[in-house]
Amino acid sequence: MRKSFAFCFFIFLFFVVSAALIFSQEREKTALQMPEVEPFSINIGKSFAASSSHSKTLSNKTDRNVIVEDFTDALEIIRNNHVGGKKNDCNRLTKTSISAMLRTLDPHSNYFDSTDYEELLTDQQSEYFGIGATIVNFEKAGEIDTYIVSTFPDSTANRAQLKFGDKITAVNGEKVSGKDSGIVRDKVRGRQGSIVRLTIERAETKRIETIEIKRSRVPQPSLPDAYILRPGIGYLDLSNGFNYTTADELSVALKELHAQGMNSLILDLRDNPGGILDQSVKVAEKFLPIGSTIVAQRGRYGIDNRVWNSANKTAENLPLVVLVNENSASASEIVAGALQDHDRALIIGEKTFGKGLVQSIINLPYGSGLTLTTARYFTPSGRSIQRDYEHIDTYDYFNHKVNLTEQDKNKTAAKTASGRKVFGGDGISPDETVKKMNLTAFQIQMLDSLFFFARELVNGGIGGFENYKSQNISNPYGQRVKPTDAPVTDELLAAYTSFIAQDISLKKLLPNLVKERNFIKLRLRYNLIMAYYGSVSANQVLIEEDSQVGKAVESLPSARLLAVAARKNLK
Asked: Taking the CB of residue 6, how many other CB atoms lie within 10 A of it?
């Protein structure tokens, strides 16, 4: 315990001394060279350094000593006197105290212990180390368990013949029933080449098996899918953030879509949380000709001030619609803002998150890390899209509880290249707002039953429907879904109704089945395609019925006119 206390003390001492230097001293021109990002959650940051000049703020050694002594005394008193006694975790106390201090600055500065920091850095890679399976929680008769819904090609999970509907009951001997799938995921992941022992209830036989699987590299692309949605219309799903390979992935996808006859494009940035700034610049650059401003950054010091311009001599000029929502943040807002300000794309969907802050990252001892907001970014028209965080609490900030008044909104007004009025201070407002179709409470209740019915169906558990068994389907992962794939017939719907009626825990759903017929058909087909072809293909089923995507398709003629006007403005 003494060693643990010394560790906590050293971390805090390092943090206080570093903070004193950082806040009080000018930075030198030479800095630690680290990749630049514009993060939403928190990601690996840009260059950061402190010099040895003097300042009045926290520069006095005595001031720092007082802070360190106060913290040390407080920690020791807690350990010796709190009713929790030795149960009080020193690491947790330190993490909470530093995080609370940073929260007084802004919502996006944060401290990460070594475990969280390692996961943070992994999120920026185009890969992770695990077994290559998608897992989800489902509830049956009040019991929540974790199920395999998809495995990736050539993954160790695939080679171990894990299949849709297999239930994970334990990881390395530890029971996981009732645990969130995110917790189970973290237990399954680990060091490359290490072994994880999974106890599985097979969906087909209901037999319990314990299997050992070697953890290996699993690709994690930022562009999960790209295909021709309608004749001539490309659809590109860029929902997994901006990592080190995003721009290269985009180049490959655009080339393939052009080869398939694409003459207009829908770029889907919904739920994209952000990531590496340079990659977002390169994505915007694909559609903006040479010399076009993409984003500007302004910070406390001159080294933080920078403007990114397009260097692309052969930019794409096809009609472009960009889809966004309230979870499109940071780097994805840079792309949307640049394309909107240059009138290069129509923005459709819902207002984005509104994060216009840039974090720097500092490596701390023992593998932990600190992120600190050091700059703001601005769109080409000069807008800061950062939402107010000084006059509301953190909960309201992250849950979009406050919107700008019209008076405040007008203070942030700017104009696009063609003179259209746009606003800052509250995310990127779409050119046309289209609300997503939220599931009703009853529909949410039905999701579990639809999964369990599909689980039985694809494993031969529903009599008379042997042609739906997964082993009767040739299943290349991620294939383009055809209208004839996994048809949901009236007979199949009747079988689902019987399945519901035979389960006491599900009978409550019966009165509303007729009203929800279309929803049942959509979600049942989604589960079947998931079982046959994987998560990428299953998402195509939902995209076909997505109202925001439908509006994007309708808006492409307007986007075509905007693209023509943009070319004139950018000449």
From this structure: 11
Active site residues: 330, 341, 355
Tokens, residue 187: 């237990």
157 CB-contact burial (10 Å; exposed 0-12 / middle 13-18 / buried 19+): buried
Q: Quick one: which H or E segment has residue 182?
A: helix 181-188
Question: Mind listing the pLDDT tens digit for each residue in 403-436?
Answer: 777 888 888 999 999 899 999 999 999 999 999 9
Amino acid at 461: G
Bridge partner list, 1? none
Q: Is 3.90.226.10 the CATH classification of the domain at 238-253+262-434?
A: yes
> Residues 6 or more apart from 321 whose CB is under 8 A from it?
264, 265, 266, 267, 345, 346, 347, 348, 552, 555, 556, 559
* Contact yes or no for 277/243 (Cβ under 8 A): no
Using CA atoms, how far apart are residues 191 and 187, in angstroms rounded to an integer?
A: 11
**Tokens standing for 20?**
């004193």
Residue boundaries of the structural domains of the chain: 127-219, 238-253+262-434, 441-533
Give strand ranges (E) for 185-305: 195-201, 208-214, 216-219, 225-230, 233-237, 264-268, 293-299
pLDDT, tens digit, 9 for 90 and up, residues 34-53: 333 344 433 333 433 332 33
> What backbone phi and psi angles, to 5 degrees, belong to 555?
-85, -5
pTM score of the predicted model: 0.85
DSSP-assigned beta bridge partners for residue 375: 299, 358
- Name the burial class of residue 261, with classes exposed (0-12), middle (13-18) and buried (19+) by CB atoms within 10 angstroms of its CB: exposed
SS (H, E, C) 21-86: HHHHCCCCCCCCCCCCCECCCCCCCECCCCCCCCCCCCCCHHHHHHHHHHHHHHHHHHHHHCCCHH
Backbone angles phi, psi at 476, to 5 degrees: -70, 125
Annotation: CATH topology of 127-219: Pdz3 Domain (2.30.42)
